[in-house]
């Protein structure tokens, strides 16, 4: 039986294509947009017109228009002081009040709240009032990424290949003691306290804060080897870069190069000093 004899339950124009016949109607994603109160319909339409001419991506335009729509719906029901669309002070108060239901009632994430406030700021900029004086929601601080297990192994193997005991001590201090480069530069010989089985480092950190850090066994071995061969220079710093009569320490970039394995063999380990600091193993 030929396809032309199959009844489809309806007529089809001779020039219509098969894909057009079977293609489903385009469906709109998400819920339909909430109706804007009549008092703000013209304001939203004017903003949408200005937004269409702005050098922004289509996604940004849609997001801003949606966020401003939500703000105007809230504004219609809110008990505001003054006119937030014409008075700068009333604008600031309204935006600050709008932030509260976003965080406390709707429980939006800080980034979502800040995105909504950015859209409202854009709305007021195009309205001619300028952005509102309202603080953004504080974003949670993320812990710096530490070295992965494989990266840590590669780093320690590269340190083992360093012929200089001084360089090995420098490279292992951030890894095992969690010291910043500037803190490694600031170490004096007197800051290293080693015994047969234990040890500690006196580290001067940011804000002139001093902390005592237990020395991990591999770091203690590296420091012991370096102190055993360290020349008796008339200098207090633990890791002098070169013989010098000048009473100054080497610049941090010198030590930073020592803690970058990719500079030793032309390899790129992709690991920064901040990540090595966060990879220090448990103390003994």
Question: Would you summarize the structure shown here?
Answer:
This protein has 284 residues and is mostly helical. It has 12 helices and 3 strands.
Describe this structure in words.
- The protein folds into two domains: 38-127, DNA polymerase, domain 1, CATH 1.10.150; 149-241 and 250-277, Intergrase catalytic core (hpI Integrase, Chain A).
- It contains twelve helices and three strands, in the order H-H-H-H-H-H-H-H-E-E-E-H-H-H-H.
- It has helices at residues 18-22, 38-52, 58-77, 88-105, 110-127, 149-160, 165-177, 181-185, 217-229, 252-258, 262-265, 273-277; strands at residues 192-194, 199-204, 210-214.
- A hairpin with a 4-residue loop joins strand 1 (192-194) and strand 2 (199-204).
- Helix 2 (38-52) runs antiparallel to helix 3, helix 3 packs across helix 5 and helix 7 packs antiparallel against helix 9.
- It is elongated.
- Mean pLDDT is 77; it is low at 1-27, 242-248 and 263-271.
């Amino acid at each position: 039986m030929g396809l032309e004899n199959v009844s489809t339950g309806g007529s089809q124009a001779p020039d219509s294509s098969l894909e057009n016949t079977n293609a489903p109607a385009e469906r709109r994603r998400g819920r339909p947009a909430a109706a804007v109160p009549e008092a703000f319909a013209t304001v939203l339409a004017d903003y949408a017109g200005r937004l269409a001419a702005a050098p922004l991506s289509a996604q940004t335009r849609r997001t801003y228009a949606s966020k401003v729509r939500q703000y105007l719906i809230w504004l219609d029901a809110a008990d505001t002081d003054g006119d937030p669309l014409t008075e700068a002070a009333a604008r600031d108060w309204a935006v600050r009040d709008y932030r509260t239901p976003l965080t406390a009632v709707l429980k939006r994430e800080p980034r979502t709240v800040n995105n909504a406030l950015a859209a409202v700021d854009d709305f007021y900029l195009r309205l001619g009032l300028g952005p509102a004086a309202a603080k953004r929601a504080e974003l949670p601080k993320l812990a710096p990424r530490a070295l992965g297990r494989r990266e840590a192994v590669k780093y320690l193997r590269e340190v083992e290949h360093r012929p200089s005991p001084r360089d090995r001590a420098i490279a292992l201090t951030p890894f095992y003691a969690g010291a910043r480069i500037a803190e490694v530069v600031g170490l004096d010989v007197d800051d290293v306290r080693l015994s047969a089985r234990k040890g500690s480092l006196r580290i001067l950190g940011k804000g002139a804060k001093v902390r005592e850090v237990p020395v991990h066994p591999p770091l203690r071995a590296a420091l012991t080897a370096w102190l055993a061969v360290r020349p008796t220079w008339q200098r207090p710093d633990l890791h002098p870069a070169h013989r010098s009569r000048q009473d100054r320490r080497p610049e941090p970039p010198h030590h930073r190069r020592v803690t970058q394995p990719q500079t030793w063999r032309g390899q790129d380990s992709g690991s920064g000093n901040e990540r090595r600091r966060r990879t220090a193993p448990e103390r003994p």
